[in-house]
Amino acid sequence: MTQLLRREPDVALAAAEQAQQLGLEPDSEELRDALAFVDAQLFDVVMACLSSHQKDRPEPAAVEAALSAFCDHYAQNVGRSLRGEPLTPCPMDASGRAVRRALMVGATVVCGVVWAVVVVSAALLASGARVTATLGSLVWSGSLPGIIAALALALPGIAGVAAGALARDRRSGFLQGVLALSACEVPVLVVAACSVFSQRAVTGGLVAALVATYTLTWFLLAMGFAFELPVSAPRRTKAQMATPLAGGAAAARTFGGPVEVSSDSISTTKEA
Prior knowledge:
Elements: H1 2-7, H2 9-22, H3 29-39, H4 42-49, H5 60-72, H6 74-83, H7 94-126, E1 130-135, E2 138-143, H8 146-165, H9 170-193, E3 195-197, H10 200-227, E4 238-239, H11 248-255, E5 259-261, E6 265-268
Parallel strand pairs: 4-6
Antiparallel strand pairs: 1-2, 1-3, 5-6
């Protein structure tokens, strides 16, 4: 296992990261089985390309989509396999993947535009408004600068998106993004609750803008997480490997005989 990973730096990096998180040894049998189970996703792709009938072979774009999905989700799928969760599949459906990505990009653009319009509109509404803020013994009264209102509305969303983008996967990105968004939103709400504006319309507009920007940012983070959710994929069961090479599970299915499946193990036997 160690010798194999020396020749596969990308695989070694993904395996080391997941092993560290779960407290596994780099050459543990459980990690080996997880890598094999993830690599076995390529079985259907390879076998489809080796079909003896030309009409049964997938189009190059479909194969490219499947291989791209396999590489993009490899590290995540290793972790899912170790945790016994369904894998993110790598279907040979370029059109379906393209549609999902187009929908996500479109929704992101629409949310971003609406978010920007809300921030700018609320900032223009509040610009120059008379406000009195009382925080304990501290009292401030004066005109509210538009840039301050814009920053108060925009910073929570920016912090949430940035925290989500820096995460190692979409699930962590969603959680970290929501936490960062909420952590920055709470102080703004506290200050808004302690402030009294001379015009009631300004107060209502700012509260509505705060709710709208929070909701739009949360929706953006949720869209990124939902796009990565597995559509339909098997859960890993412990496999008895013939060799330590990743992909041995697929090889066993290809060259072996009947396969017996139980809830705890998969055993491959060869007929004489």
